Every structure is written in C-alpha cells, then in structure tokens.
Amino acid sequence: MKSLSLITETFTESVIREMTRISDSCEGINMSQGFPDFESPEAIRNAAIEAINNHHNQYPITFGEKELREAIALKAHSYNKINCNPINEITVTCGATEAMIATLKAIINPGDEIIIFEPFYENYGPDGILSGAKPCYVKLHAPEWKYNIDELRKAFNKNTKAIIINTPNNPTGKVFSKNELSEIAQLCIEWDAYAITDEIYEHILYDGSEHISLATLPGMRERTITINSISKTYSVTGWRVGWAIASAPITERIRKVHDFLTVGAPTPLQHAAVHALNFPETYYQELQKKYLTARAYMLETLNIAGFKPFIPKGAYYIMADAENLFNEFKAENDYDFAKKLIEKTRVATVPGFSFYKGKNTITKQVRFAFCKKPQTLEMVRNLFETHLK
Q1: Would the pLDDT of 102 be above 90?
Q2: Range of 236's domain?
Q3: Which of 131, 106, 128 is nearest to 117 (CA)?
Q4: Angle at CA 225, nearest 5°, toward 224 and 226?
Q5: Do 240 and 351 fall into the same domain?
C-alpha cells in the first residue's frame, strides 16, 4: 500500500488526551485535561434544552447564528474594548480549536513561518504544520515565564506570517502585560505580521492581573485575529462553540475554510451561548473567587507533596517542577514520572514535554488542572499524603 501522510509523522497524538484515557482506565483522578468536574451553570443548560425544544436543531447559518454574532460583538465591545461588525467580522466555529486551524489555513502560504511561545498549548505546533507553516519557538523563561526581547526580535524575519499569543496562558498561567503586548505589536507592525490571540481564559485572573486584548493596541486591529470560546468561562468544554474576530477581508477567508471544515457549530448550543454571554458581572466575580480558592489549595497541596509549583496569574493550570520526586519514582523522564504518578497515587497529570517542541524534549515539569470540585482537590491531597514521602 502507498505510504500515509508524511506530515502526520511529524507530530504525536495529544498527550493531554492520552493521559485522560490512562486515568479513565484505572479510575484515576483526572487532573490532566482542562475540563471541570462540576456542573455548568443551570441557566445555560436550561437555555440549551429550550433551544432544542424550540426546534433549533437544523444546520445553522454557516458562520454563526445572527443572535450569537450580535452577542459576541456586544461582549467584545464591553469587555475586550474591540469594536467589530457582527455581519462581516465574526465567524462562529466548533470551539476555539477550529477557530485556530481555520485562521491558520486562511492566512498561511507555503514557506510562511509562525512564532509560538514555548511552553505552549500542544495544538499550536501541529496546527501550524497542518497549515503548511514552519513553527518557530520563543522561550518563556521560568519562574515568571517572561520572554527575552532579543530572542523574540531574532525570531521575526521576512518569512514571518503570524505570531500566536495565548493570554492567559495554558500551561503556565502567564498573563501578558501591556508592555509585553506593546513590544509584540511593534514587531508585528515592523515585519507586517499577523497576530493570532487565543483569549479563552480571559475571565480567570489572579493577583490583580489584567486581561488586555492585543487588537486594542495602536495599529493592531486590522492585523489581529482574536479567538475565544464559551468552553472555559461557562464550563461547557464539550459544547464546541467558539469564534474568531477579525477584519472583514480576513474573516471572509476564515469563513471559507470553516465552511468546508465543519459547516457550522451546533445550532441549539449557539442559542444557549447567547444566554451565557448575557450573564451578569456577578457571575464572573464568583468564577474568579472559585478558582482563586482552588488555586490556593492546590498550590499548598503541591508544596506539601514535594513539588515546586510555579504560581499562575491566570487560567486554571499549575506547572510544577517535580525534580524532588524523580528519585523516589525512579523516573527516567517526565512522561515516565507522570505514568508512575498515576500508578502510585491514581492522580493524573500532564508531562511537561508535551508543551515544548520536539518529541525528545526533557523536562522535569508536570501540569495540573485545578478546575475541580473542592472534594476532588481534597482527594488529591489525601492521596499524595498517603502515597508520597
């Protein structure tokens, strides 16, 4: 038989989803994949049921139901300070994941390069490769996960088509500052590059961190594609409703790709998303309180267990240095450590290498997702206290 795609030989399956499957197979506690184990808000669930009962069950308008695009535009204006036209500057997609690949497919030509900050959400590298781009990586340096401006400048060149910025960041919890975003904006303008921002954790912030949308900076509105989703803010990661906001010429291309990738996001869930985007400010305040408490508890748990956690400023993940535990586990690398941690404690995490370029990257880091019920976090602490020295 003829050989399969050479492109798909260049990356592995999702390590995050793999760790979830391993966790499920041994009835473990899934601290690996970023989905809550508590219920999504009752109001949004009822809105979905109502939409189904009101016969919103057929194909939607390909690029998004009118009501949802209007709600996204209002939310973008009030929260993000982005003014956009729901008629020709918003594309509703099957989650932020599709928004990202559709955006890259819409802008990339052979020979183009994209800049990705490392460590990165594991989809970005394969997305770039599948789009025909060459990924170029710029390190975020622990413990504060800052980039070196000289390293970033060096990454830009005449072939740079775009840079991907995820803020708040998965896996590090970094929130890019206005000064950092301004430096990135200046380089994008200098090299005539696009910026693709993944802002899915925009409402999960700590310690006075401020979320700033890059599109609001001078000169960036027309060259920025702002990606978002209802998945994390409203705890509906399985619904797959996201969007991309961009200028009309870029949106036209994104819509073409989206149309032939998925046709449209689920119709009844789009209508429920309208309801979610109209939640009062108190909802977001309570959300932050919930995750602030969970973060504090999980940081304490990891310190007690012998990890050295990095304190996140946003999102709901903690990257932790596990070097102190490697000898106890006789671990060869972070992947081996993560598997042995499940075997010994039933707690699933993600090995750090999955957030770095190259299959053979060696780290002594693991990532924990703390978007869990207090009872779940307490179980993790008890298991660590029982099974770790």
Answers
A1: yes
A2: 58-277
A3: 128
A4: 110
A5: no
Question: 239-277 burial, b if ≥16 CB within 10 A, otherwise e?
Answer: bbbbbbbbbeebbebbbbbbeeeeebbbbbbbbbbbbbb
Same domain (yes/no): 17, 107: no
385: left (phi over 0), alpha (psi -120 to 50) or beta: alpha
CATH number, domain of 236, equals 3.40.640.10
- How large is the C-alpha radius of gyration of the chain? 21
- What is the chain's length? 389
Instruction: Give the N- to C-terminal CA distance of the chain in Å, as an integer.
Output: 53
Q: Are residues 289 and 346 part of one domain?
A: yes
- For 119-148, the pLDDT digits (tens) are 999 899 899 999 999 999 999 999 999 999
The DSSP secondary structure of 10-30, one letter per residue, reads SSPPPHHHHHHHHHHHTT-EE
Give the DSSP letter string of 284-332: HHHHHHHHHHHHHHHHHHHHHHT-EEPPPSBSSEEEEE-HHHHHHHT-S
Q: With CA atoms as reference, report the closest residue to 81 among 196, 201, 221.
A: 221
The two three-digit tokens of residue 365, written as one number? 């880091």
Among 13-17, 224-228, 352-356, the range with the most confident prediction by mean pLDDT is 224-228
